[in-house]
Amino acid sequence: xxxxxxxxxxxxxxxxxxxxxxxxxxxxxxxxxxxxxxxxxxxxxxxxxxxxxxxxxxxxxxxxxxxxxxxxxxxxxxxxxxxxxxxxxxxxxxxxxxxxxxxxxxxxxxxxxxxxxxxx
Length: 120
What we know:
Layout: E1 8-9, E2 12-13, H1 14-26
Antiparallel strand pairs: 1-2
């Protein structure tokens, strides 16, 4: 499993992006408006994102194959065309998420919340 601090996205680590995204969710620091996570088309395969808060994050086209997203908050997230093959989504909150055209083959969705998710 790849740790968030080991994954680089542009000039930031994934850990920094996740921390900034929490500020966007909480609106608790100056400049929070520009801190929403945009991980569109990023290779996050095998990443350990267990319990990560990715509420309304942009993950469209991201490679999340074999990623650990157990108990993660992905409610309202944009996962359009994301690759979630073999991902662990045990207990993940995917309510209201856009999973349109996402690859969910071999994904563990046990106890995942898919209420209101777009699975077209």
